[in-house]
Amino acid sequence: MLRQFHSLPGLIAALLVMLLSISGAVLSVDPALERLHSTPTTAGQLNVGQLAGRVANHFPGVEQIQRTASGTVIVYYNQNGQAGAEKVDPLTGQGLTPYEPSAFSRWMKDLHRSLFLGTPGHGVSGVGALFMLLLSVSGALLLARRLGGWRNLQRPLRGNFSQRWHAEVGRLALLGLLLSALTGLYMSASTFGFIADGSQSEPAFPTHVSAGPASPVANLQALQATDLNDLRELVYPSPGNPQDVFSLRTAQGDGYVDPVSGALLSYQPHDSMRNLYEWIYQLHTGAGLWWLGLPLGLCALCVPLMSVTGILLWWRRRKAGPNIRHNSPARSADSVILVGSENNSTWGFAKALHDALHQAGHQVHSASMNEWTGDYRNAERVFILTATHGDGDAPASASQFLDRLTKVGLKPGQSFAVLGFGDRQFPQFCQFAHQVQEAISQAGGSALLGLETVNRQSSQEFARWGHALGDVLGQELMLAHTPQRPQTHQVALTECIVYGEQVNAPTRVLRFEAPSTLPGFEAGDLLGILPPGSPVPRFYSLASRSEDGVLEICVRKHDGGVCSQFLHDLHIGASIEVFIQPNPQFRPASGTHPVILIGAGTGIGPLAGFIRNNKARHPMHLYWGGRHPASDFLYEPDLNRYLADRRLTALRAAFSQAQDRSYVQDRLIHDALALRRLIEKGAQVLVCGSREMAKGVMHALDEVLAPLDLSVLMLKTQGRYREDVY
Prior knowledge:
CATH topology of the largest domain: Rossmann fold
Distance between the termini: 35 Å
Shape: elongated
Mean pLDDT: 89
Radius of gyration: 35 Å
Largest sheet: 8 strands, antiparallel
Strand order of the largest sheet: 4-3-2-1-5-6-7-8
Low-confidence stretches: none
CATH superfamily of the largest domain: Flavodoxin domain
Number of domains: 5
Structural class: alpha/beta
């Protein structure tokens, strides 16, 4: 519901909001430019009487003096029947340059305030401000929910390009957009009289003026008592009209000045509503607050980018939405698939399962988890495929599932299997899937399989789950689904370095020529490879970046491994089809803080790439585990070179088949004191390797961090612990 509340106004008002934001950003520069060319005065340095006296020496026919919010003083005069306007130096009263309002700025103001439509246009602009307020508030709520609460708003963001940029830009611009939307809505309401702006309280025109000749303007007491910085406008009396007076507008109020006695007549101070309106006007336009106007303008420029990425996200969610063929009625289905998804990406996997079960002869019903009724009379099995949103919360299409399960219950002994989707970078990885597993078990369900999880929509992990499910059902299930697979590119093998033959762990570092048609990539991104005869791509972490001109991966040969066998059999010059899958959440954060790299086996690939790119020589410490230093010390020559040129600060290697038979976890425990010092300095930890190794590393680091009252979970929450495990 919240996502729809955010998306619908954005789609309806995208063009209007972009138009208002771009024009507002252009106008935000005006106060800064005006301030740049003005001559500022300090409080008490000059009064209005002094200014008027000095102006009179240079402009005998002066009719009006204005001071803008940015401090520019403008004199309007009539000389020899010719009207003129000039910017003046307030300290001397001397003219600086003729004043002519910018036609472009006036045009842009009309566009921003009324879309050139007059009074109806003011209403349309007000509606645009309302839409901006709705989008800002709902976007902030969505962002907080995605990151697991308001306290985590500064956590690193994950997702594809559109998701990250939409949320990141929104996070940066949120306060500015809220301020602009609220103030714009207020000003629109005051334009139509829904809110009083205090302009109704005008001073009464005086009925009595002192008789006699007018005093020199510099001697008028009321003008001498008014600080120049408080002046808004001084209008001179009409020549030849002895009953006319000076009209004085200031920051505190408005009144009339007797040209003979210099007394202030019928003064009307601004009431609270007038002061509120002027304050809000300054906040919205930056008039007098040029230092605020510029960042508000930058925030406004973020709106077009957020609009475009928001529309892309909406379109992708629509394309990824359920389009299930052969969807049997719930009461007649023998297999039920229920899906929990925040942005519809889980539905692609559900459809693959649905199609595989249908082809195997089953009657299958697929629906969202919120459609749970419990009335599945013929269902022999129920499959739950669910993502986790934010800090362990239910995704949008599963938000009502646990309550519905409690109310309507479950058929006794109902067979079920839960598959969780998530990102291991988040502290509460697949937490909602765990909650669902426990809830169905407590309701009397019988698990076909233990809870399994899929990290970052891994096609390989999904396919492995399908094989395990097929074994339980007694029939082969081929589950192949790759979300939004990019276009493949043909690359040729140019170099192969062999390791590990002597310890029965054949491993190769493979380097392929990177064609110019490839999109940009960084070390830590993933190289997708489709082995012959398999629809499921395998992913390998890249040890290189675009600037290196090669695609470099580290591959160990596994018994029965279709892709690893294929890659190990390649000869120099052989070509394969590949694609790049960005993995921006797994790379060192920018800055000078130390980086602790931990890996084992082929997990060293991206870590070596991070070190190779450490041209700034920031502190990097590598902990890595292999089998034997004489056989599979991967990247040994490179690492020694990086140590020599200080791209690598320290190397701690462990070998399970060497004399001391140590593992990378042992090195971490042994270096506990040094690691704690690095963590206290703000170090980031990156772990790459097998899932079992990553579990051991987590346990070891929890022990290391305990004296600091820290844990791996806390580092993950802070965005300082990232994994790429398989």
